[in-house]
Design goal:
The protein is of the alpha/beta class. It has one domain: Rossmann fold (3-Layer(aba) Sandwich). Strand 1 and strand 2 form a beta hairpin. Helix 2 crosses helix 4. The protein is globular and about 55 Å long. The protein starts with a helix and ends in a 5-residue tail after the last helix.
Length: 376
Amino acid sequence: MTNRSSRTLMALATATLITTSGIALTSGAIAQSARSVDAPPPPPPAPTATQPAKAAPDMQAVLDQLAALGGKPIETLTPAVARMQPSAADGAKQVMIKHGLSATPDATVTTHDVPYGSDANQFARIYKPASLANAKNLPVVVYYHGGGWVIATVDTYDAAPRLLAKQLGAIVVSVEYRHAPEFKFPAQHDDAAAAYRWTLQNAASWGGDPRKIAVAGESAGGNLAVATAIYARDNRLTTPLHIVSVYPIANSSMTLPSRMDSANAKPLNGAMLKWFGYYYQTSPADAQDPRLNLVKANLRGLPPTTIINAQIDPLRSDGETLAAAMRAAGDKVEQRTFPGVTHEFFGMGMVVRGAQDANTLAIARLKAAFAAKPKR
């Protein structure tokens, strides 16, 4: 075969390919990123003119403040630079300050960090109401933060676990985990499972009752909450009494309705979903793994579940289709899509009414689960 023929075949083999995870690969591009925080971003997807639904005024105020902080589009950055950008939580804090509210974390809830593994990012932040410092047999919530498994930390996602601890009178274990691209899938799921098992073993030493345990999470963490409940079932661990999964990653189809109508949403857009996948997957085939593509997982026998979604979010259909799949598997599921709000709204209850309503729903369902007779 001539060199020219070889080049022709190679060009055909590496010509534009749209994978099942929706990542566009142009001629000569590699399928996924290198394991480096400085790996360049993937080629941008083709632009779409579709505009998202209009946000409620209080939600828009947060988006406006976030824009004023001057962050760069995540999908154009390396992970190292992306991790330095302002977050939606920062936008919410700016609105709080404008309203004369304190943006300082509520000191009535105490925290301390404890390692559950040998890596620097394998630790958990333990939240506990100060008024219950010496209490025993408290309920426990294992919480997983978002960030597409690439960006964000327990610091970014402080609002929700702090609120849950205070309102539930519970210990909340906010799990930090190794990030991609340094550690690609399934490292984050492995860490989530290890942290859950570790919590069961150690909850009593913090004043918790490991029989009264629930899991919760946002975005990538919403996925981890469900995946960890599946892990607990399959490994015959104490299963959570309830799952709260907030705008989870759950369906690898790139043709879902919300992928289209919210492709240009803020603070999460369709291009960012492809960017995250490029960095956290080892190969495009990972997108079909049931730990990521939860709608194809074995969902039978899972605990009662509350799924919370935002209307203006490319992941809205993930939660809706996950709820349908769980119901088809015989699980008890409540799914609500809150109007006028966007991805990341859940931690904005101080300034966004839709977030207050979502918080109230999650807290009520968790309280009811903890009020039931503990498992033996």
